[in-house]
Fold this sequence. Notes:
- With 160 residues, the chain is of the alpha+beta class.
- It contains five helices and six strands; from the N terminus they run αααβαββαβββ.
- The chain has a four-stranded antiparallel β-sheet with strand order 2-3-1-4. A two-stranded antiparallel sheet has the order 5-6.
Amino acid sequence: MNQVLKLLLEQPDLSTEQMAQVLNISVEEVTRQLEQLKKDRVLLGWRPVLNLGKEEDGVVRAVIEVRITPERGGGYNRLAERISRFDEVDSCYLMSGAYDLLVFVTGPSLQKVAAFVSEKLAPLEGVLSTSTHFLLRSYKEHGFLLEGPQSEGELLKVAP
């Protein structure tokens, strides 16, 4: 694995200067490698890890299991790519198991997400069924705990 990419995954908050110092290479070399990763479409973007539970307005997130019919000559790809183009869709994955696609969706309200599923996703030709699960609370996002660390001596409450 590329040294710069590995460092990005391990310590994403480092500046290019800090990365150069850690890797013992020049800032120009770090920049060149980052540009190459972008050109090769390995590094597609950079997103902060947010604790949306702290946001006043909030965002509704849902995970949707989608069963689809594979197309002759295209398999699952054509329909998966079509679903991925919807603005509401954050991520779309081909899965093995009881369903074919796992789709992560965001919206401003439960009603908007439900409308997306019933009016845009479910009616698509080739979609056999959907199962929507609304995310109620996040405990960990992309390796980051969202609440403060629990003290070692503190036991979880089991009963009131």
